[in-house]
Amino acid sequence: MPELPDVEVFKRYYERKAQGKFVSEVRPKDDKVLGNVSAASLRERIPENRTGKSSRHGKHLFVEMSGKFWLAFHFGMTGYFCFYREDEPPSDHPRLIFDFEEGSHLAFDCQRRLGEINLIGDKKDFVESKGLGPDALNADLSLDDFKEVFSGSRAMAKSALMDQSKLAGVGNIYADEILFQAGVHPREKCSDLSDEEFKEIYEQMARVLEQAIDAEVKPDKMPEDFLLPHREPGGRCPKCSKEVEKVKVSGRGSYFCPSCQ
DNA sequence: ACATTGACCTGAGAGC
DNA sequence: TGCTCTCAGGTCAATG
What we know:
Shape: globular
Helix content: 25-40%
Structural class: alpha+beta
Largest sheet: 4 strands, antiparallel
Number of helices: 7
């Protein structure tokens, strides 16, 4: 599930619930989600530190530990944070649990184990090592930057939007939503897009991502004209009420409105 | 350079 | 009820 808006919501959840707490213990439950760090090393290095500030780049979330190092979280398909108190039930598939001195906990939950945790010293180096492009919701990203990234590509618009080395953060769901709002067919080639279409995609990208965050990523809180709640067989386009269609692009199920796009 | 496919994982839901 | 099949918001490697 986690694309840029989801991860931004996780970030705010972390800040609200778990930032600034003293970690008494950390419990790694599954080596599969550990990237460059072992369970033993986590147990060694994390306790006695305080959870610090956080930042996000694309689908990656960084959490600083006492100003000493960062934990980089990637949520895969099914990851999320779950904060709970002593008297509350834990999450379903905890893969790493922080125990706070005050008696509460933060779990990194990931049912399908496709997420990954890394311990890093420098965020920039990490972003570079992953080959990530600029964050898709970066205020410094101008229309000209955007065009420069995409106009040289012969890939389909949706594939290009999901390419994390071009821009980081857009995944399957929001690529569909952005192209729907921009009125561009997902299989349209970047090289065939007009200036007007580039501008439309650029503007809709920022709008869609921001509105999804405002809606806390909940389908029922999304704007009326979002495709997102209608991406299912038989679903109706929120703008023209024609039946939405599904095709495969880059091996991913892709919904679009045949009349609006 | 790009599309496609399968692998990595687990579980929910559909159809029988 | 239980089985099988397909699918799921991510990424990576191999192949054409």
